[in-house]
TrEMBL record:
InterPro entries per UniProt: Formyl_transf_N, Formyl_transf_N_sf, GART, GART_AS
Family per similarity comment: Belongs to the GART family.
Taxonomic lineage of the native organism: Archaea, Methanobacteriati, Methanobacteriota, Stenosarchaea group, Methanomicrobia
Keywords in alphabetical order: Purine biosynthesis, Transferase
This protein's name: phosphoribosylglycinamide formyltransferase 1
Organism this protein belongs to: Methanococcoides vulcani
Pathway membership, UniProt: Purine metabolism; IMP biosynthesis via de novo pathway; N(2)-formyl-N(1)-(5-phospho-D-ribosyl)glycinamide from N(1)-(5-phospho-D-ribosyl)glycinamide (10-formyl THF route): step 1/1
Length: 202
């Protein structure tokens, strides 16, 4: 059976692209991205979806009378596409309670830091400014906190002499494009078991 995936985006969509590519090349088995949803009409990720013949939907947050109405529309869209797994890929909003409950342990996010360090915005800059010697990225299930859900995979990269915030962010992004497809593959193969905060890989 094919795993129906929805991807929520707000921007350039390079992580979306890495999932698309890894479904196409067979690394992620039996899965299809059914819809890409953006809260920004001009997100480049929507173009990437269109280029692949994937339904690309812009949901305008200001058009539904507030956060609750907007979230209801998101949920309706996810249900319309019979979504079984939701991927946040550069989606710049906090997900509301109803969507989280509907997709508990079936919604993932990628964060460009080694959680629980450097939650929130500009994680690479936070890490760089802090002076860490090791940085990285995390794929986790989404819970009600910001970047607090059970951790599925992490990958670290060194911070090198002469790095800038941008060179570090690029090094992290390269690994994001590997571990996100890896986490989705594990989910598609039913190899992730969640017990409280602990995610075991079977
Ligand atoms: C990535 O760094 C991701 O970790 C963070 O937002 C960025 C999105 O980039 N959540 P892209 O839109 O996938 O290129």
């Amino acid at each position: 059976m094919t795993l129906n995936i929805a991807v929520l985006v707000s921007g350039r969509g390079s992580n979306l692209q890495s999932i698309i590519d890894n479904i196409e090349n067979g690394y992620i088995p039996d899965a299809a991205i059914k819809v890409v949803v953006s809260d920004k009409g001009d997100a480049y990720a929507l173009e990437r979806a269109n280029d692949q013949g994937i339904d690309a939907v812009f949901i305008d947050p200001s058009a539904f009378g507030g956060k609750k109405g907007y979230e209801e529309e998101v949920l309706r869209t996810l249900e319309k596409y019979d979504t079984q797994l939701v991927l946040l890929a550069g989606y710049m909003r906090i997900i509301g309670k109803d969507v989280i409950e509907a997709y508990k342990n079936r919604m993932m996010n990628i964060h460009p830091a080694l959680l629980p360090s450097f939650m929130g915005l500009h994680a690479q800059k936070q890490a760089f400014d802090y002076g860490v010697k090791v940085a990285g990225c995390t794929v986790h299930f989404v819970d009600e906190g910001m970047d607090t859900g059970p951790i599925i995979l992490q990958r670290c990269v060194p911070v090198l002499e002469g790095d800038t915030e941008d060179t570090l962010a690029d090094r992290i992004l390269e690994q994001e494009h590997k571990i996100y497809p890896e986490a989705v593959k594990l989910f598609a193969e039913d190899r992730l078991k969640v017990d409280g905060r602990i995610v075991s890989i079977l």
